[in-house]
Amino acid sequence: MKTSAVFSAALSLVALVSPSAAKSTTALLTPPQVFKNTNLVHVISVEKNYVKENVNVLIENISKEPQDEYYLPFTADQVSRLGGVEVKDRKDASAGPFSTQTVELDPESDTLYLRIQLPTPLKAGVQQTLGITYYFLDAYKPLPASIKQDDIQFLAYSFSAYLPSAYATLKQKTEVKFPSSTIPDYTRLPGSGDVKEFPQKQGSKLTYGPFTEQPAGAVEPVQVRFEFNKPVTHISELQRDIEVSHWGGNVAFEERYTLYHHGANLSSLFNRVKWTQANYYNPTTHALKELKFPLRIGSADPYYTDVIGNVSTSRFRSNKREALLEIKPRYPIFGGWKYPFTIGWNSDAKNFVRATASGGYVLNVPFLEGPKQVEGVEYENVRVRVVLPEGAENVKYHTTIPEISITDASVVIHQTFLDTIGRTALIIKARNLVDDFRERELVVSYDLPLAARLRKPLVVFGSALVVFVSTWVLGSLDFSFSSKRK
C-alpha cells in the first residue's frame, strides 16, 4: 500500500471517530453559556516527541452576573494523556497560574472538562485574555507503522482545525509547527475570503483559518503526517530518590527509568553489521543511541547500571562550568523496544540544604532532571521520594510543577542501615510530565530536633561500645579445659 493510501485510510478512520458532518455536539449536561470567545489563536507544536498546545483566547462574560469558572472540553482519551496544564492572564503575568481541575458533567458522555478557576470573577460584559498551555503524551502514530532499519520515520497526528470549545467562538485560527518543512500529507479544507484553501504552508508551519463564527462544540477533524527521524522517547516509569545526610554533608540522587521507543517498529530483524557500518558516517537515525544528563555543578561519583549490571559505555565531564553525564545503552533502541536502566550521583549538601532562622531546614532540589534531548522526552508516571534524616518532623513541600499533574503526596517512614525508628520520607507522585519541566523546583521544609541529630552518632557510638565491651568480656573468659588430679 502506498503511503498516501495509508494516510487516506487513517484519515477515514479519524472521520468515523469524529464525523465532520456533525460539527457541533451537545452533551446532556454542558457548562452554562455565560462566555463567548471573541478571538482565539490555537498553536500546536509537534516539534518534539510530545504535543504542546497553546491557546490564547479573549473571553467575554455575556451573562448578567459575574462569572469565575471557564470550561475547556476534552475527550476521556485525551484527559488520560493530558499533562502540564498551566493557565495565566496574558496581560498580567503576576496573576497566575490559575487553579485547574478536570471534571465530569455528564457520566454518559465521553466529554470531560478542564475547569479553570478565575482568581477574580469577571463582571458582565468584561473581557479577559487567557493563555492556556497543556501537553499531550503518546500522541503520534507512526505512518507507516513498520520501516526498515535505515528508512526515514514519519509520524501522524490527528486534531481538530476548530479548537473544541464549550462556548461559541467568533474568530479563530490554528497554527501547527513542525520540526522540518517535510510535511508530505495533510488535510485540506475549503478556504474563505481571498484564501481558496486551508491550510496555508509557510516553511515548517501550517495555518488553518482564520475561521468565522463557530458554535459551541464545533469540530473539524484533520490529520497531518510529517518527517520525524528521531527517537520517540517515552518514559513509562521514573522513580527518583533524593537522600539527605546531614552528618555526611551529602545529597545522594538515584533515578530508575523504564524507557520505551514509541516510534515505528522494524520491518525486519536488526542488522548489527549494517548498524556498525553506518556509524562511520553517522547518518540521522530514528534509533535512540545516546542520552545526555546535565547535572548540577559539583556533582560527583556517577554510576550507570541496567538489569545486567554496570554499563561501561558512559562519559562524565565535570568542571567549574558544567557537570554532564553521557550514557550509551548496550544496544541502539528502535521503535517498540524497551530499555530499563538506573543512574545515580552524589552532590554536596550545601548546594541544596540551608538552615532557617527558626532552627529548621529547607531543601531545594529540581523536581525533575532527566535527559535533555533535542527531540524531547515524555514521562508517563513519576515518583519522587525525598528521604530526610531520621527524626525529621513537620515536613512541608512546595513545587512549581503544575498542580493538576500531582496525583498524590504522603509522608512515610523509610527503614535503612543503622536506623532506630526509621527515616522520614516524602513521596510525591505525578503523571504526564515532559522535559519542559526540567529544573522546576521542589522545596521541602522540615524540623530536625537536637535529639534527632544526635541519635545516629549515639547509636554508632553505642554500637561500637557494645562490640568493644563484648569483645573484652569474651576475651577475659577462660574456656580452656583443666584436668583433675586424683
TrEMBL record:
<comment type="similarity">
    <text>Belongs to the OST1 family.</text>
</comment>
<dbReference type="Pfam" id="PF04597">
    <property type="entry name" value="Ribophorin_I"/>
</dbReference>
<keyword id="KW-0732">Signal</keyword>
<comment type="pathway">
    <text>Protein modification; protein glycosylation.</text>
</comment>
<dbReference type="GO" id="GO:0008250">
    <property type="term" value="C:oligosaccharyltransferase complex"/>
</dbReference>
<protein>
    <recommendedName>
        <fullName>Dolichyl-diphosphooligosaccharide--protein glycosyltransferase subunit 1</fullName>
    </recommendedName>
</protein>
<feature type="transmembrane region" description="Helical">
    <location>
        <begin position="458"/>
        <end position="481"/>
    </location>
</feature>
<comment type="subunit">
    <text>Component of the oligosaccharyltransferase (OST) complex.</text>
</comment>
<dbReference type="GO" id="GO:0018279">
    <property type="term" value="P:protein N-linked glycosylation via asparagine"/>
</dbReference>
<feature type="signal peptide">
    <location>
        <begin position="1"/>
        <end position="22"/>
    </location>
</feature>
<keyword id="KW-0812">Transmembrane</keyword>
<dbReference type="InterPro" id="IPR007676">
    <property type="entry name" value="Ribophorin_I"/>
</dbReference>
<comment type="function">
    <text>Subunit of the oligosaccharyl transferase (OST) complex that catalyzes the initial transfer of a defined glycan (Glc(3)Man(9)GlcNAc(2) in eukaryotes) from the lipid carrier dolichol-pyrophosphate to an asparagine residue within an Asn-X-Ser/Thr consensus motif in nascent polypeptide chains, the first step in protein N-glycosylation. N-glycosylation occurs cotranslationally and the complex associates with the Sec61 complex at the channel-forming translocon complex that mediates protein translocation across the endoplasmic reticulum (ER). All subunits are required for a maximal enzyme activity.</text>
</comment>
<keyword id="KW-1133">Transmembrane helix</keyword>
<keyword id="KW-0256">Endoplasmic reticulum</keyword>
<keyword id="KW-0472">Membrane</keyword>
